[in-house]
Every structure is written in structure tokens, then in C-alpha cells.
Fold each of these.
Amino acid sequence: FRSSKEELLEIINKIVQVDYELETMLEVILRNYSSPNSYDFADEINTIISQNIDKYDGTEQILSRLGLVRQSIDDLSEKKKYKAIVGTVKAIAEQILDNYDNLDDYEGDVLLFVDETIKYLQPCLDLVDDITIRQEILDVLLFIINWDIVFGGIDVDYSAQEIIESHTNKEDRKYLSSIIRQKLEGEFGKKK
């Protein structure tokens, strides 16, 4: 039994139309195969959310497909691609939280998924000395904390708070202090 390349691609396309997880898995594998140094999943994450948000089981599909993207973080960890890990975590957290009002989260699975994703930043903060990457991590953690406050305090920020409390150094805390001060001055005017 021999099939042509076109026949195999047609079979794969039919399978992918039925199994969304397989489609995402293939996209991740092909991305790593075609450009192994490119780990920018922001567009892919946006596409996953926008294509599934209005479907009956859209939230379940989104979390399932983003779970496959999130699995790529383990590969990034092995390759010590900390900047890529931060970018992937940031893209997942921002896209989910920016679309949270449109997601079905009666069981709390969406916020749990965000919390579990945020935890990937802790080892990065422990292992990275590069100030720029550390600040990017802190910016993501502050985004989570700020989103939780604005949304009404639904406690999606526990991991972010714990990482800041337990895994930051003196320079990190100075950076956080300056960012918070700038934000407060911007919202309430400068102190006189």
C-alpha cells in the first residue's frame, strides 16, 4: 500500500478537520521543524481564541488547544529559551484574560489554566540573570495582579503574588516599586 504525498496530505487534512487538538499539535511541530528558533506563539494563540470563542464548546476547545501550546514550554525550558517562555506565557495570559468576558468559566477552569501557566515564570526568575528578561517576567506578573484587581479580585493572582514575594531580588523590587509609582502618578497626578 503506497500513497502519494498528495493523498497523505488529504488524509491528514480530513483527520485534522475532525480533531482540533491534532491540528494544534501539527502546527506546533511544523513551526518548530520549519523554524526551530521561532517560538512566537502570540498570533497562533490569538487565532485559537478567535476561531473558537463563539462555538458551543469553544472554551473547552480553547483550553485544550492552548494546553498543547503550553506543552511547548517544556521544550523551551530544556533549550534554556527563557525569553521565549516569557513571551509564550505572556501571550497565553493576556489573550485569555483580554477575552475572559466571552469565555465560559463556570467551573473556574479558565482561571486555573492561567494560574498554572503563570507558574512557568517562577523557574525563569530563579535561573535568569538578564535584567531585561527579569523585567519582562515582572511585567507579566504585574499584568496578572492588575487584571485581577480591575476585574474585582477573583484571586487569579495568587501565583503571581507568590512568585513576586518569594523569588525576586532587591533590584526586582526596585523595578516593581518604580513601575507601580509611575502607574499611580499617571492615574492620580504627580505628588506636590
Note: Residues 102 and 181 are 32 Å apart (CA to CA).
Amino acid sequence: FRNFYGEHYARSLSDLSRLIEALDEVDDEYPHKGLEYIWPGIAYYRFRDFDKALYYFSRGLSYRKPEAAGYIRSNYMRAWSYLAAYHHERGNLDSAAYYNRTILASSEGRTQFQEHLDFAVCNLGRIEMQRSNYDGAIVLMEAGLENIEKDERSFEFMCGVNISLGECYLAKGDIRTAAYFIDKARNGIPQY
């Protein structure tokens, strides 16, 4: 999958096709089968081929084993995150909430991977914001942000949540706090 990161897309799609063919032939007891199906889901999601992405996420999650190695469990959580994002973008708020709650309730989330839990909590806050439950949204997003702010790799997500918090406070008529969160988002953007 280094080809995807190096933007060698034609080669990546060729490799992806070969991987899928091999996975279809591998015995179901192969311990990485679920993980390996999630990777094509992520790739197709990035290419915005959502029908294929959803298919491979479902296929990968169908092989889920909670006792799997940590990096495999982390990818189960990534698949749920992508599914939540897909439904959220389309306005399917109940489905988006379902996948975010799945992350929070999973054995994977209770053992490690705090960042996935924090993202899910913030995303549930964003869903509440869309439902005009601004007080609930603020509580959830501020709770999720507490740990995210410590992780420099999450600045993009953190900026988006700060903007959402600003919008919540603006909707409540609290201009000063809205401005605080908008400034916080702006200050979180490198070289701004």
C-alpha cells in the first residue's frame, strides 16, 4: 500500500486487484483475512468508490476476532470510523451514531486505541450538533478533544472539532466563546 501513499494509483489498483483475488482463495482461518479486506475498503473509500468500500469493510469486519493482534483490532476500528463518516456525510445520522457507538462499545476500544474512542465521542457530538442539541454536542466534543489536543498528528480533526464547537456556541448566542474556539482552530493550523 506504499504505492497509494506515493500516489502511484494505477500500480496500487493493480496490486489491490491481485490482493483481493488471493484473499478470495485463502482459507477463512487465515488470521489476517479480515484486516486484508479492510485495506481495499480504505483504498476504495479514498477513491470515493463507496459501493466497493462498504463491501470490503463489511467483508473485513465479518472476520473480526476480538482476540486478534492490536494492529488488526485498530483496523477494525478504522473500518467502523470510515463507515460512520460515510453515513454522516450522507445525513444518515442514526447509522453514523451506530458506528461511532460500536467503536465505544467494542472490546478493541476498551483495551487500547484511545484516539479512536476520542474521535468517536467528538463525532457523536457533531451528530448532536446537527440535531440542534447544542448543549449535548458541546459536552461530547469537549470530552473527546481533551486527549486529541495532546496528539499533534490529529491537528486537522482537532481544528474541525474546534470549528464545530464555535458553531455550537454561536447558535447559542455566545459570541465570545464562539470566537475563542474559532481562534483556537485557526491557531491549530500549522503556518497559519
Note: Residues 70-89 form the longest helix (20 residues).
Amino acid sequence: LGETIESTASMLAGLEAEGLLASKQARFTIAHVGVAKAAAELCSAELRRELCGRLASHLLATASDAQLTAQAGLAARALSHAAVSLQGPDKLRAARLYQLAAVQASSGMAYADAAQYCARGLELLSTPPLAAERELWITLAVGHARALMMQKDNARCEELLTALCTHELSPKEIAIVYQSRIDNMSNIMERD
């Protein structure tokens, strides 16, 4: 990826002209699985993290909310493998991206991915959360616990929900957290 949108577009056009990338509906894909394998073998883990970081930073900076929503899983995977330091509004936008990716992963029953995305999103938020982060913080925290519950990791789920209860919660937040605790206990009793 280039340093600017124009340089990135030029690089992608050159790769497309060489037959290494295929363009479809304003998106690029690797032209052949062999190209992807060869590129992966030639890149060190450090270089892959750097490239993922640049891709994730580019997506966070340039993609519309609708584009990020549509590509949340892809963008979250790139961000989770990235060597990038996010600051200010990018941290909050990345946390929201992880939350969207977690919802998408859960809908596909990929609960381990959902738990990972929620945990990564929480890492980006302040502790305790700032007022602007509060709803996202509760959503990520409860989502993390529920994804663990769906993986039958009920002890860890209860641990996370109990930790949430140590914070001052609004009546709405209490209802959300305690409903999840009830669901977790029901899940345990169904197995016993």
C-alpha cells in the first residue's frame, strides 16, 4: 500500500495490469491462490503485521461507515494482525469496528472470533469508559461474555459479568447484564 490514496490506486492498477490482482465492483482480489501463497511465503511475519497495519489504518481513515459495516470482518482481521498504534477517534472507530465484526461472527456462529473481537474492542476503550464510550463498552463487555457462554466457557462468562457488576450501572445496563447472567446459569443447568 502506498502512502496516499493516489499512490495506492497506482500500485493496485499496476498489479492488476500484471495479472496479479483482479478488480470486481471496485474491490481487488488476488488473481490466483498461487500468487497469494507465494506472497505469503516471501513476507516475514513482521512485514505482514506492518502491511496489515497499513491496510487497517487506511480502512479506518478512508472507508465510510457503510463500507466498514459491510467489510467489518475483513477489516477487523487486518486490524487484529496489525502492528499499528491507534490514537483518539481512530481508537473509538476501531472499537466500533470490532463490535460490528463480533456481531457478524456471532451470526455465523463463530463465537471464538466474536469473543476475540469483543476483547480487542474493549482494549481500545478507556477504563473506566468515558461517557461517549459507555454504550459501546457495555455492548462489547456483554458480547464478550455471551460469546464465551456460547462456547460453554460458563465460568469465564460469569467472571466477566460479575466484574461488570462492580461498576456503577444504569437500570438499563443492570437489566442487560443480569439477563446475560440468567442465560448463563440456564445454560449451565441445561447441561447438568
Note: The mean pLDDT is 84.
